[in-house]
C-alpha cells in the first residue's frame, strides 16, 4: 500500500500515524499492566532482600511452574543477599584491577573489543558499582541484568586482559539474573 502512494513519503506517513485508531493497541491498558508489574516487582524485591536461604515458600512464589532454570538458579544462589554481597565485592575488585591497568604505562595504547578503551570499561563498571549497592546498604536488583550483560561481554570479548575472578562474577551474576529477568 505504501508503494502505491504518490508524493513525498514523510508527510504521508505522518498523516497515517496521526489518523490511526489508537484505541485498539495491545499496550493501551497501562493501569492494569503497571499494577500487575508493581506487585511482581514488590514480591521479587521482598524475596531478594532477605538475608537467609530461600525457603519452600520462596520457591513457590518465584518458581510456581518449577522451571528447571529458575529452580537451579535459586539453588545456586541459596541466600540472595549473601550472593549480592559476593557480586558487589567482585565488581569492586574488577574496578580496582582496571584502575591498576590504567596506571600501568604498558596499557596506555591498549585497545579492547570494538575499540573500547580501558577508561570506557572503567566507567561502565564504576557506574554499576555505584548503582548496585544503594546508600541504605540494600541492593538494587534491577542492576543484576546489567552486571550479567557486562561481565558476559568482557568474558567473551576482553578475556585477553586476564582480569581475575571474572568467571566467578559471571557465574554468580548469571544465577541472580536467571531469577530476576524472568520475573
From TrEMBL:
Give a short account of what the protein does: Bifunctional inositol kinase that acts in concert with the IP6K kinases IP6K1, IP6K2 and IP6K3 to synthesize the diphosphate group-containing inositol pyrophosphates diphosphoinositol pentakisphosphate, PP-InsP5, and bis-diphosphoinositol tetrakisphosphate, (PP)2-InsP4. PP-InsP5 and (PP)2-InsP4, also respectively called InsP7 and InsP8, regulate a variety of cellular processes, including apoptosis, vesicle trafficking, cytoskeletal dynamics, exocytosis, insulin signaling and neutrophil activation.
Q: Which UniProt keywords apply?
A: ATP-binding, Cytoplasm, Kinase, Nucleotide-binding, Phosphoprotein, Transferase
The top EC class is transferase
Q: What is its EC number?
A: 2.7.4.24
Organism encoding this protein: Cirrhinus mrigala (Mrigala)
Protein's name in the database:
Inositol hexakisphosphate and diphosphoinositol-pentakisphosphate kinase 1
Q: Highest taxon of the source?
A: Eukaryota
Q: Which reaction does it catalyse?
A: 1D-myo-inositol hexakisphosphate + ATP = 1-diphospho-1D-myo-inositol 2,3,4,5,6-pentakisphosphate + ADP; 5-diphospho-1D-myo-inositol 1,2,3,4,6-pentakisphosphate + ATP + H(+) = 1,5-bis(diphospho)-1D-myo-inositol 2,3,4,6-tetrakisphosphate + ADP
- Which PANTHER family does this chain map to? DIPHOSPHOINOSITOL PENTAKISPHOSPHATE KINASE, INOSITOL HEXAKISPHOSPHATE AND DIPHOSPHOINOSITOL-PENTAKISPHOSPHATE KINASE 1
Instruction: Give any GO molecular function from the UniProt entry.
Output: ATP binding
Q: Which residues form the signal peptide?
A: none
Q: Where in the cell is it found?
A: Cytoplasm
- Pfam families named among the record's database cross-references: His_Phos_2 (PF00328)
GO cellular component terms attached to this protein's record? cytoplasm
Query: What are the leading ranks of the lineage?
Result: Eukaryota, Metazoa, Chordata, Craniata, Vertebrata
What family name appears in the similarity comment? Belongs to the histidine acid phosphatase family. VIP1 subfamily.
Q: Do you know which InterPro entries this protein is assigned to?
A: His_Pase_clade-2 (IPR000560), His_Pase_VIP1 (IPR037446), His_PPase_superfam (IPR029033)
Amino acid at each position: 500500500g505504501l508503494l502505491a502512494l504518490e508524493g513525498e513519503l514523510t508527510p504521508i506517513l505522518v498523516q497515517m500515524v496521526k489518523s490511526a485508531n489508537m484505541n485498539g493497541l495491545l499496550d493501551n491498558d497501562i493501569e492494569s499492566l503497571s499494577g500487575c508489574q508493581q506487585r511482581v516487582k514488590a514480591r521479587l524485591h521482598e524475596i531478594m532482600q532477605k538475608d537467609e536461604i530461600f525457603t519452600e515458600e520462596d520457591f513457590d512464589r518465584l518458581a510456581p511452574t518449577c522451571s528447571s532454570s529458575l529452580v537451579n538458579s535459586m539453588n545456586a544462589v541459596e541466600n540472595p543477599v549473601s550472593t549480592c554481597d559476593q557480586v558487589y565485592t567482585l565488581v569492586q575488585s574488577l574496578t580496582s584491577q582496571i584502575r591498576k591497568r590504567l596506571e600501568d604505562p604498558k596499557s596506555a595504547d591498549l585497545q579492547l573489543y570494538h575499540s573500547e578503551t580501558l577508561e570506557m570499561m572503567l566507567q561502565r563498571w564504576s557506574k554499576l558499582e555505584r548503582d548496585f549497592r544503594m546508600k541504605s546498604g540494600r541492593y538494587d536488583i534491577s542492576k543484576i541484568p546489567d552486571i550479567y550483560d557486562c561481565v558476559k561481554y568482557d568474558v567473551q570479548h576482553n578475556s585477553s586482559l586476564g582480569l581475575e575472578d571474572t568467571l566467578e562474577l559471571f557465574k554468580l551474576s548469571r544465577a541472580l539474573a536467571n531469577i530476576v529477568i524472568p520475573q
